[in-house]
């Protein structure tokens, strides 16, 4: 059965089709990317739980939460399976619902138990995020297979720039007075602590609205459009309507690997290790920058804004990386960026 939204998108002028799908995917990724605001919320969450949930809770314990959120790569595998069985929109909706529900339920779990909070803001958030993340990206690729690097870079930029939007909002919601923590890194002001649970409630609703709007256009292109694209030798749905341009081209040969073939490939393991290493130092920065910064900087809002600026740079680099990958190759881009990443650690 043809997706009515996909048919409607195909009625748009060629350049606007991919734009519409990218807009929906970016909207979803803006909500998923709040994963990177954990470090901004860490002092607030730790302070609240230490004062109201359990006096034994330390900031160090809360690092288990992003560890559980890190289950999202495994959820990506499930996301691909669900997309094949249920379609991209419904499968993405499952992930989005799980992620937003995790944030919503954290309004209550943060008041009662560290372990319950770990499940809702850790596992639920991370698992739902992983399911929705991969399907949104794959859907955009299906609409623009000749611009994989650029379109995935734009969608990933939505994920990256999310924290530049939501980190200052979180700080303004919780600490509008710009209070500084004590020498141990905890906030003790009652008016600040009372605001912490409400952030999860409010933002979960915002996330759900963003995701609902984005889900409307998360769909694969109609099968006849894909067939027409192959017949005309075009790699893009933007060119699928141009009969004259496509007739003289050779039909592209599609190639893919099975799971067993992938696991036997040395390239797979090289990429796996590379991503693991990059994620390791990146997540260390995202999760601990504020806790560390507040040991010698007393301006809470300044730290949120500084992090936001870094997130904007991150988002711009994602788009630039994608564009360069289309123009050159993954290996060439990797050789250019890794020296900069390593030098940044020093």
TrEMBL record:
One of its GO terms (molecular function) is transmembrane transporter activity. It is a multi-pass membrane protein. Residues 226-251 are annotated as: Disordered. One of its GO terms (cellular component) is membrane. The keyword Metal-binding does not apply. Residues 226-235 have a biased composition (Basic and acidic residues). It is found in: Membrane. Keywords: Membrane, Transmembrane, Transmembrane helix, Transport. Signal peptide: none annotated. Residues 236-245 have a biased composition (Acidic residues). Gene3D superfamilies: MFS general substrate transporter like domains (1.20.1250.20). It holds the Pfam family MFS_1. The chain crosses the membrane at residues 18-42, 62-83, 90-108, 114-141, 148-169, 199-219, 267-289, 301-321. This is Major facilitator superfamily (MFS) profile domain-containing protein.
